[in-house]
Amino acid sequence: MPVAPTTSPTTRKVDPKPPPAAERVYTHIKEAVLDRRYEGGTFLTEGDLAEAVGVSRTPVREALLRLEVEGLIKLYPKKGALVLAVSAQEIADVVETRLLVEEFAARKAVPAPAQLISRLEQLLEEQRELAEAGDLAAVSVKDRCFHAEIVKNAGNEILSRLYDQLRDRQLRMGVAVMEAHPGRIAANITEHAELLEAIRAGDAEGAAQVVRRHVSRVRVLVRGDDR
Question: Which pLDDT band, with edges at 50, 70 and 90, does 224 fall under?
Answer without folding.
Answer: very low
